[in-house]
Design brief:
InterPro entries: Endonuclease_MobA/VirD2 (IPR005094). The chain is an alpha+beta fold. It is built from 15 helices and 11 strands.
């Protein structure tokens, strides 16, 4: 079992993510602990209200949402009652047994997994400390549950990393089976809440893998100047389709000013994963992949997307790495010179196109020179020598008189107007 913990500031966003999955038929609510009444009859607002009653007890606490996913091996097919017991046991052992929480079973991946949504604000108004909750409490609880429920252990087994977010099914959206706004909102919320990025370009490196893109518009537009932001769907060729959606209209409010706050925080928070990412890239390079395609394929198998940025001339001028294991994004240059696009292509044994073109030009030039050297110009030169005087004589005769002096200037006649 693998536990992934996300702490956030938007209970509404976490709840919307799971409730929308239910509406799409990709999830179902299997447990509501600490909720009075018939949960099946509760709508979104009623569920949110239960959590907001606690949030209002301590409004100073900004990080007040806990969103956890428990992921099980693909070989394990667990029943709802087993997943319910695991959810209760896990929450109790990480110190959230008395907190209200919702458990959703998701079926949008190749393995069983449940999502748990709760808050760290207690009925007394005190907050539960979330600092390092993964290493201090979750890991211990995870190992104990694996033993008690005879689950496949995360350690000692090659775990296949997955993004955890499924790309939007463009066909379904186009045919109206899935509303565009809801589809975009689900994906953007999931990415923004889980990945660490330091620029809009890095965010788009992630979003584009799920068929979404964030756009500020052209620099000379009012939208750009006002720091506006829209989100659009992408087709299989990467072209924008459908009507763009304003960032302010999405549930999580992923506007540019809000994203910029995250840019600053992520600069430091992603650093701890930097050595691991570099090590993974080094390992792939060490295996000497046969070209760029083999390189990207090997990294993908390790849960890392390598995205080469291609210029108008068809050459790669940059590279961005998206580590789906640790949910981080790095430009190659930020990792170090050895991880830039140029260095990677050289290490793969590929010369830059410009260098190849220059070498080919030099080679052709030398070839042409050698051909010229082999031509005998003697007959042509003799013919030219004999011809030139005959060509020049009339021309010179016009310019000089018989005495060798310059020709006399002709006077121009004045016109009487």
């Amino acid at each position: 079992m693998v536990a992934k913990i996300i702490t956030g500031k938007s209970m509404r966003g976490a709840l919307h993510y799971n409730e929308n999955k239910v509406l799409e038929g990709k999830a179902e609510l299997i447990l509501a602990s600490g909720f009075a009444g018939d949960i099946d009859r509760m709508n979104f607002s009623q569920k949110l209200h239960r959590f907001e009653n606690l949030l209002m007890l301590n409004p100073k606490v900004k990080t007040n949402t806990l969103h956890i996913s428990l992921n099980f091996d693909s070989a394990e097919k667990l029943k709802d009652d087993t997943l319910q017991q695991i959810a209760v046991t896990y929450m109790d052992r990480i110190g959230f047994g008395d907190q209200p929480f919702l458990a959703y079973r998701h079926n949008d991946a190749g393995h069983d997994h449940i999502h748990l949504v709760t808050t760290n604000i207690q009925a007394s108004g005190e907050r539960i400390d979330l600092h390092n909750i993964g290493a201090i409490r979750s890991e211990k609880a995870r190992r104990e549950i694996e033993m008690e429920y005879k689950l496949v252990k995360a350690e000692g087994k090659k775990y296949k990393p997955e993004p955890g977010i499924k790309a939007i099914d463009i066909t379904k959206v186009n045919y109206g089976r899935l509303p565009t706004k809801r589809a975009v909102s689900n994906t953007v919320t999931a990415v923004v809440n889980t990945y660490k990025f330091t620029s809009l370009a890095e965010l788009n490196a992630v979003l584009k893998q799920f068929n979404v893109v964030a756009d500020r518009g052209a620099e000379d537009t009012l939208m750009f100047q006002k720091k506006g932001l829209i989100y659009s769907l992408l087709d299989e060729k990467g072209n924008k389709i459908g009507i763009p959606i304003k960032s302010s209209s999405l549930y999580a409010k992923p506007t540019l000013p809000e994203l910029e706050k995250q840019f600053e925080k992520h600069v430091e928070s992603r650093q701890q994963y930097k050595p691991q990412l570099k090590g993974a890239i080094d390992k792939v390079i060490g295996n000497k992949p046969a070209g760029q395609e083999a390189f990207t394929k090997s990294l993908k198998a390790a849960g890392i997307a390598a995205i080469f940025r291609i210029g108008a001339n068809g050459q790669a001028f940059g590279i961005t790495y998206v580590d789906h294991r640790n949910k981080i994004v790095f430009k190659g240059s930020d990792l170090g010179k050895a991880y830039s696009a140029k260095a990677i292509l050289i290490s793969l044994g590929r010369k830059e196109k410009s260098t190849e073109t220059l070498q080919m030009s030099i080679k052709n030039s030398q070839k042409s020179t050698n051909q010229i050297d082999r031509i005998d110009f003697t007959p042509k030169l003799k013919e030219l020598t004999d011809t030139v005087p005959n060509l020049l004589e009339p021309m010179l005769k016009e310019q000089f008189d018989q005495s060798g002096g310059p020709p006399k200037k002709r006077k121009r006649k004045k016109l009487n107007l």
